[in-house]
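Schema walk-through. Below, the input block comes first and the output block second. Nothing else is stored per chain. Lengths vary across the set, and this one has 160 residues.
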Amino acid sequence: MDEHAVRHYLNQVPVEIREAIMELDTPYKWAIYIALTVEGDKYFNQLKKQFNANPKTLTDILKSLVASGLVDRKVKQLVDVGDTNKNYYTTTKLGEKLLMNLYEVVLPPLLVGEPQSAHVEIIEPAASEPEEIHIPRQNLAFDLPENHELLKIQLEGART
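--- output ---
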């Protein structure tokens, strides 16, 4: 491969982001990273118990996540520095933003920009064909005639 071309494209994304992503190379790292991001700070023993993990394996995973910049190892009080039983792990701002942005890319928001007005018109469908109504916003109330037993609603851009 052309090293110049590789460097050209790699330089367009900060090394911190590339390294953070590359460290998430196993399901175990992803699981611990997600647990810390979603559930908050945890001590080593809490993670060990939660994942029924071998201490060496867990130590290696946490060191990797700390080195990536996604997770920090902290102590609550200055006097606890050096006491490994008082260390806890927390997601960094980079770690929080990474997961949040991955969700936003994969699952875009339901509504982008200002709500649009919606007009719903119900036309009698053929006997065997369900009716489709396209609604461009989330909150909409309308009355259906009593003779409609089946109504198919398609929500574009909706998360499930």
